[in-house]
Task: structure prediction
Amino acid sequence: MGGVVSSIVDGLDDAAGKRQTALDATNSLVELAESQHEIYREKILNDAKATAEKLVPIDTILNSTYDVRAKVSSDAEDLGDDIGQVVSQFASGEFLQGIKTIVGRGLKVLMGSYSGSIAKKENYLVSVGPLGGVFRIDYFLYSYRFQSEQLKKDVDNVLLYSIVVSSVDLKALNRNTINVILQSKYGDLVGPDGKAAVNLQEMREMIWKEVQLAKGIVQP
Result:
């Protein structure tokens, strides 16, 4: 579980100025995390103009948000729920659950991959909204883990999650690209019943229909 930075620091014993030391350190990290969000958002904005990295091209950024937590563990289910809330206006049902599962996996990988004090992970997903429309979800996870024994005990780490939701430039997609994207992003997701967690064929046909509409191949 993770918590709001201020509430965790406020709960510390103030003996020997422990609370102030933790507050100063975490405030500095919060500023660093917030700057990482701005850098990431700018990267997505630039990707709207140039697709040199061969990512799925975007048309318009629809939503951008972030949060900073402290004392986050690798099984922080509340983090997946919070991210689910952000994207729930764009996805629902098995698609939404698939997104939450993938981000949750990313968090576990992140918390086990510190290089020194820092761990970073970024990725993107593509999905379809309840009323149609194809969107891309870019997410960025950044964590700093304290090395000081006292701070490690009291706060342990600070984690930023940054989410940018954009509409996809459909005219740049073709059926083969859609197949590859869905297989690479969702292909290995398995539900509690051991079956595929996301119906890839259904999602592909929904996206392909939107692409055909955008290109004028079929009429609404």
Summary: Residues 1-6 have pLDDT under 50 and may be disordered.
